Amino acid sequence: MxxxxxxxxSPTLKSRWYKASERWRDQLSGLDALPQxxxxxxxxxxxxxxxxxxxxxxxxxxxxxxxxxxxxxFEGLSSGWHFALPFLGALIFGLVLQMVDKKxxxxxxxxxxxxxxxxxxxxxxxxxxxxLFGGAWCLITGQSVGREGPAVHLGASSGxxxxxxxxxxxxxxxxxxxxxxxxxxxxxxxxxxxxxxFAMEVVVMEYTTAGFIPVxxxxxxxxxxxxxxxxxxxVFHPPQVALKSLFELPLMAMMGFIIAxxxxxxxxxxxxxxxxxxxxxxxxxxxxxxLLTGGAAIFAPQIxxxxxxxxxxxLAGNMGFWLLFGIxxxxxxxxxxxxxxxxxxxxxxxxxFMGACGGGALGIIANELMPxxxxxxxxxxxxxMGAMMGAVLNAPLAAMVAILELTYNPNVIxxxxxxxxxxxxxxxWVFQCEGLFQTILAVQGKKSSFAAHEQLLSSxxxxxxxxxxxxxxxxxxxxxxxxxxxTNHPHWIVLLEPKLLLHPTDLANYLSDNEIAADTLLDLLAxxxxxxxxxxLEDHTNLYQALLNMxxxxxxxxxxxxxxxxxxxILTRERIDNFYKLPH
Length: 584
Fold this sequence. Notes:
Elements: H1 11-28, H2 34-66, H3 79-97, H4 108-118, H5 125-140, H6 148-165, H7 170-189, H8 192-204, H9 209-230, H10 249-277, H11 282-299, H12 308-315, H13 321-340, H14 348-369, H15 377-393, H16 396-407, H17 413-430, H18 436-443, H19 452-458, E1 470-473, E2 476-477, H20 479-485, E3 492-495, E4 500-502, H21 504-513, E5 522-523, E6 531-538, H22 543-553, E7 557-561, E8 567-572, H23 573-581
Parallel strand pairs: 1-3, 6-7
Antiparallel strand pairs: 2-5, 3-4, 4-6, 7-8
Helix pairs in contact: 2-5, 2-6, 2-7, 2-9, 3-5, 3-11, 4-6, 4-18, 5-6, 6-7, 7-8, 7-9, 8-9, 8-16, 10-13, 10-15, 10-17, 10-18, 11-13, 12-14, 13-14, 14-15, 15-16, 15-17, 16-17
């Protein structure tokens, strides 16, 4: 927030602004910062909504001129372009990225989870730029990926970069990243509730009032921004169908199991591709992915781009079994390989595509087995979409809410609960798949989730537990300065070199037990006293990262400074231990 101070402001104004900003950061570092986070969540939602609108325009304006009739009609291109567009697009993008620093390659939802769990939610600007333009380029050139993964990355980065610009504590960046994710999903699909649930279930992995309210407001803001630009329109146009008979439920449970088989295959194939891609040149990976996509698109052009037009066709019952099965298989293999190779696209859209095709094919079989006794094919398409999304992402609630909001059909709730739960349980317990993002992060050797106490520590800033009643001293000083150190009864005496804490009681006892001449220099490293080794940390650190740093350095305390090198206070291991052992 200090960046906002006018350069010609008076010293008094600067001092007041600095004190106010410090109080603001102190409040945000605690667990009860709901009012502050709500305000920041609103601004994050607006910012993320604007970024997603820009991203959609970057994609849709070129496609309006490239594709005939509408911006998803890749099928309308010639067979030559079905091959050339994704192949050349991937080749060119790979060559461009080859000239960019490798640290900016990572993108999409796995990158967001990595930054939240392993980097205190500090999203880099370089990866944001790569995702904005690279994600748009991949969608324009017909790669078999979705736009939601880039949207999630852009939304999370909007919140994180806003927080970094304001120099907020890292626990606040985590909340703002969640707000950005909710706003992005809401803006992509016009589904504010699904945005909230996805952010809390998949990204933040936390269910608290202080977590939910800012995220809800951000989702509302993102939806408003989207509707101001694109109007109130839904992505899909399903028929208002309902469950025809309870005797269908066994068929639907079997459908959940079958979807789970393909969900596990998708996860494992993407994980294998990711493992094989580690260390390979990005131009080679992208060229191979583009070659496969182009080759498959010659025979199944429906797999190109987001494919929402194909989903709507399946919902209307306009596709046959073999066409559905063929493009389902092609989409599964091509998308898993493309994303595993690092193409910066999304997975949610392809999952809905695969679920729609798989569900539609199974609906046709059900109607053949029980003519006039089961629901329409479109109903099975909806159930398949929810099952595939829930099973692959290990996010059953987000999947069910997304389908409900996308269809505005309450009749889908009851059967989708059964299908989604069967699919999720089968994927997780039978095939031992924890979820796509957790699996990919494990392949990359990165942490993907928090234990309960780690979650609590990550949600709290180090500033909230600081002992600020300290005094700083050099290791050598005279009697007068030694006595001055003890005025106002500080809790710790800080020795910046060689990074030690001295207990004031021990200094006081030494002075009272010994006659010391006024001109004698005391060596605080030589007197008998209890001392703690310490490290120095910046004030934005959360408690979890502070504890990790203490463990790595094998010390029991940290001296906290802010970005202006002002001294704030001391954080001890004992305070952290007492904090997460207390009920909250």
